[in-house]
Design brief:
By secondary structure, the protein is α+β, with helices and mostly antiparallel strands. The protein folds into two domains: 130 residues, Roll (Mannose-Binding Protein A, Chain A); 104 residues, Mannose-Binding Protein A, Chain A (Roll). 16% of the residues lie in helices and 40% in strands. Strands 1, 2, 3, 8, 9, 10, 11, 12, 13 and 14 form a ten-stranded mixed beta sheet that branches.
């Protein structure tokens, strides 16, 4: 069974604000560090880059049979002190005490499953490992109906955004500040007696803004209120800005 964790990163590029989400997946295959990196780059984005908080979260939900797992940190060849993340991110390291040591060939970082701390290990050792996927949230400043927004996202990106974690919720609220409409479409829709996200998840966090009972016929699509920062049912034929989600390659 694979358990995933989405983590929010805020980036700015060429004056355009956008956000990246890291989603970590534990791969239950025993490989060397280099083999694990190759696997992650072929099937996902890369070996996982983690903060200390992420490390505790991903380990907490896993049943791992090894005392350590590979992550994406390694020592630059022929250097003594320089360690970098495989994916190029600039996240701080969270070493165990007295680590890293400088024994020969211990140039790759594993994460101890009992305490979620890092230590340097011989790269040829075989462990299971964490890969990551990167997703970006994109605010599209075009005015479309909910169906029009759905079609646009699926034709140009992956989908309308499904707000299924606290991190994505925070990011959506932040990015509504630059919207050109009072409401912004999300991937939440009411059909067949249920609110559900376009990624297939049912809507679970009911509130006074999105009633779980059957809404009025003209209020069956959900948008973010850019003033109150909450989801509200809206007429699906309204023309609004919208959020798409895309996978970063």
């Amino acid at each position: 069974m694979k358990t995933t964790l989405s983590v929010l990163l805020f980036l700015s590029l060429c004056g355009l604000n956008f956000s990246l989400f890291r989603k970590h997946l534990h791969v239950n295959r025993s490989l060397s560090w280099n083999e694990a990196q190759k696997y992650c780059r072929e099937h996902h984005y890369d070996l996982s880059t983690l903060t200390s908080k992420e490390a505790h979260q991903v380990i907490k939900y896993q049943d791992i049979n090894y005392w350590a797992v590979w992550v994406g940190l390694y020592k630059i060849p022929k250097s003594l002190l320089e360690w970098i993340w495989s994916g190029g991110e600039n996240e701080p390291y969270f070493w165990s005490s007295d680590e890293p040591n400088y024994l020969d060939l211990e140039d790759c970082a594993g994460m101890v499953t009992s305490n979620s701390l890092l230590l340097n290990i011989n790269c040829h050792t075989h462990f299971t490992f964490f890969c990551m996927d990167l997703f970006e949230l994109i605010l599209v400043k075009q005015n479309k109906t909910w169906e029009g927004a759905l079609d646009y996202c699926r034709e140009n990106y992956i989908d309308l955004v499904s707000i299924t974690s606290e991190n994505i919720t925070t990011d959506v609220k932040t990015n509504t500040m630059t919207s050109q409409t009072l409401y912004v479409w999300t991937g939440l829709r009411f059909l067949a007696g249920h609110w559900f996200w376009v990624n297939g998840d049912e809507y679970e966090n009911g509130s006074q803004n999105i009633p779980l009972q059957c809404p009025a016929n003209n209020l069956r699509c959900a948008a973010v209120d850019t003033t109150l920062k909450v989801l509200k049912p809206q007429d699906c034929e309204e023309h609004l800005n919208f959020f798409c989600i895309n996978m970063k390659s």
